[in-house]
């Protein structure tokens, strides 16, 4: 084990560790504020659990970076990036759904970190983090269920017998007719509506408290894109008479008081945008029906353009922290 720890961290280990530090430092800001504004006692307990996890992660990540003589990222701080005494911006319902979605995203990100880890200590770290996040997922889902707020995806008819696919109509339109959605296609459409709906609510709140007009304009455009995507996804579900999940914009208060820095607002916007392309890619991979693949590709291009514009805003304002990079050999040769 000692010999294993002496091995230098690889790019597939550094990248997720560095990204997690930024994510957790931003989460500490958000969760500390949510803890101050939440009203439900059970929700407060859950927020504190998530907040404690993020603080523990930051301490562990800092020690890893220092041991490796690797610069600790600046990340975000309570002093610079949030006013924890600001008025309530989001309802308890929003915060609970936010925690549940963040747990699901965390499981996705941490499993990627685990699969890319070579050193035993990093592998053990991600196993621990995944187990902690599974507990957050379990608790947040349980609280949503107990409060009648958990939104289930559509039920499907029972399969009476196993059959093989017959004909190209499974993939292509036949005389303009499309086959019904398969389970994985319906699941991805439903989940992408939920994620975009949460994104709309998040950006609505961000847009109300952002200070820069440039950021406000960018946030407004993001809301318009997300609303359009929800409409497109909903249309696919409605074609098969499937229910469409509700939005959460009503869970945002009318506060316009400074709450979050423009820097952390743009960071979350960038992170959520990047996740959209990841989930849309999953939608492509799990959707044999050709029109769905075309749809996801088209929407992904729109998201990528929006992401590029957001990155340019962050760079112009010196808000984007430089991620770890490989050596620039051409520069070193000068």
Task: List the main descriptive attributes of the protein structure presented here.
Ferritin; 66% helix; DUF3231; mainly alpha; 2 domains; single chain; DUF3231 family protein; 334 residues; Ferritin-like; globular
Structure overview:
With 334 residues, the chain is mostly helical. The chain folds into two domains: 9-146, Ferritin (Up-down Bundle); 179-316, Ferritin (Up-down Bundle). Helix content is 66%, strand content 0%. It has eleven helices and no strands. It has helices at 2-5, 11-37, 41-67, 78-81, 92-115, 120-146, 183-209, 213-239, 262-285, 290-316, 329-332. Helix 2 packs antiparallel against helix 5 (92-115) and helix 8 (213-239) packs antiparallel against helix 10. It is globular and about 60 Å long. 35% of the residues are buried. The model has no long low-confidence stretch (mean pLDDT 93).
Estimate percent helicity: 55-70%
Our measurement of the CA-to-CA distance between the termini, rounded to an integer number of angstroms, reads: 40 Å
Q: Which class of the largest domain in CATH terms?
A: Mainly Alpha
Largest sheet: none
What is the SS-derived class? mainly alpha
* Average pLDDT for all residues: 93
Taking all Cα atoms into account, the compactness measure Rg is 22 Å
Count of domains:
2
- Unreliable stretches (pLDDT < 50, length at least 5) are none
Number of strands: 0
Global morphology:
globular
CATH architecture of the largest domain: Up-down Bundle
